[in-house]
Design brief:
mainly alpha; two-stranded antiparallel ribbon; 62% helix; disordered C terminus
Length: 189
């Protein structure tokens, strides 16, 4: 999700000022995507330049309010209608790190896998604790359900990463005897 489209979605509920948009964005994303208020105002400036939002007066405290234009609503509807492209995913630092560790003399790729596995196990424990806490509160409001969905995504991603690390280790075991990388952290049977 881009900040741009996230702000448009929040403005669909009515005019908002920048710091309120920041707070609502972070609440809606379960604080998994923190923003600074400068990012919000920079994005609002671009949205205004592109004709997707307009300034619509001020609130009682004198803060500038922003509102969606018809073009902004059309852009938002178009964004919601487009699937998220997973064909060319974002760069993954872990995948790059493992690929580079395969032929470097400064590190054992098995040790890299083990360190990441410990990190993922801790993260999964933390995600599960937060997930169970939200489940126990029996979320019903849209913002509560949105937070639950984001927490579930974190749990599922951590589980998938743990499975992938197991696969990497298995792959290294299978190639070690055939001229593949020798990894001290991986049993070479």
């Amino acid at each position: 999700m881009s900040i741009r489209h996230g702000l448009l979605a929040l403005l669909d509920r009515g005019p908002r000022y920048g710091s309120r948009l920041r707070s609502e964005f972070e609440a809606r994303t379960g604080t998994t995507w923190p923003l600074n208020v400068g990012q919000v105002y920079t994005t609002l400036g671009r949205l205004e330049r592109d004709g997707l939002v307009v300034q619509s007066g001020t609130d009682d405290a004198g803060r500038t309010l922003y509102a969606l234009t018809d073009e902004g609503r059309a852009e938002l509807a178009d964004w919601f209608g487009r699937p998220v492209d997973r064909v060319s995913p974002a760069r993954d630092e872990l995948a790059i790190k493992l690929a580079m560790a395969m032929e470097t003399s400064v590190v054992d790729v098995g040790a890299v896998i083990d360190a990441q596995r410990r990190h993922v196990a801790r993260a999964l424990r933390d995600h599960n604790e937060r997930w169970f806490a939200v489940l126990a509160s029996r979320p019903t409001r849209p913002d509560e359900v949105a937070r639950l969905l984001l927490l579930e995504q974190q749990v599922f991603r951590a589980e998938a990463e743990a499975r992938w690390l197991d696969h990497c280790e298995s792959r290294l075991r299978g190639t070690a005897g055939r001229g593949g990388p020798a990894c001290r952290g991986v049993d070479h049977e």
